[in-house]
Write a structure and sequence with these properties.
It is a single chain. The protein is an alpha+beta fold. Helix content is 57%, strand content 13%. Strands 5, 6, 7, 8, 9 and 10 form a 6-stranded antiparallel sheet that branches. It is elongated and about 135 Å long.
Length: 447
Amino acid sequence: MKIGAGIAGILLGIFSLTYVGIFGSMVGSAAGWLGSIPFQGNNLGSWADMVSMLSWLAPLLAIIGGIVTFSNPRAGGVLLAASACLLWYLLGLGTIGTLFVFPIGATAVFAFFAAPAARATSDQNESALQTPPPGFDRAKWNALVQYDNDIAAVAERLQPLGQKWLDEFASSYLALNDKQYLPSIEQKIVAAAHAETAELQRRLQRAAEIEKRRAEEYRRLGEMWGHRLWGNKRNKLRTIAACVLILASATAPHLYHYLTPPPPRPTDRIVWSGYTDKNCFNIECLRGQMQKFGANREAIQFAERLSASTFIGATPRYANGIHHFRHMDIVTYVGPNETRGLVFVDRDLRIIDPNVTDFVATLRGFSAFTAQHPRAFVISGPQIVGTTELSNGRRFLLQYPVANCMACEPLAALEVPWDFTKAGRYAGVEPAALWPWSQRLPAVALK
């Protein structure tokens, strides 16, 4: 049964690998592409990674489980059951899911049932190899050995041969019950014991010779392949080239990721540190001031885009600092009356303004607070209190002050993580916590 379960597990694993693995990776790639599209709440990227991983992991578990079943049916059944569970989680129990989940699950059950059957067969084989105890009256024989000197002498001489041959002696003598056969019985038992010992030694010697020949064969194979791969200069170069090719194939994607230059991004030319009139409250005034004091074209164009990106209308702002990350930047700016803030700029040079706080009232955790403080709102721009490198991108933790009026002391600090993908695209926000203002985190300095 375990052989059938093992073969079934391997075949089902190969079948699911050719279907689920290929199509699952295609679906994962498509979902990963959709996940790179920047819109709020887009979490398809992580889902795509999970689909791609499970699409290969579940079939491989079935194949490994089938192989393990040959030697350990119970462990193989566990692996097959894990494969069926992953396929159920990935495909469900629809038309496609039942095509894989139920057969692999049934194979896991067969493997579990094969474990006690295999153990019973092994026990039967071991019991068949053991010699059944001789049928004789043990009490009568013990009395003969104790009170009959002739029988006791023979039993003492046969004692070194082992209990098996003592039992053989007892059974043979009690069957004949005649002392004149004692020499003949002793002679035949000694001869049989010596023959058995010689046969055992021959088997052990034969097994040792086979093991020696096998080790010699492995040694010769190792020397042969060692000579083929490393025996001369040509083979050494060929082996080194193959190893380098394998290593390059494994590391090329990572090297490409880290060695390729970042995508287009704002340059330091958008930053301007000149003087402007604090009372410039429209973009025309700001443009004129920047042109008057020698700002370059890139800085003026970015100031126009930055000013147009605010949610309250065209408020004049210009960039006065930039902090580079791999695929995106944080740009600090100055506005009227020395108002200051920051914006994110992604790889497509789009401005993501974290000062747009209309979304805050709809976020999880804020409604309970506003129930106690109905007039509360975000009173100013955020500060960065943390930045974390994620497996699929980077997270910036921003802290917003919340109060009942613009001039009031803040009541709470709303911490919101802003996530960006590895490609530098905006991936959405979700509030992390709402803390009392006295427990707020300190701002961090970006390098």
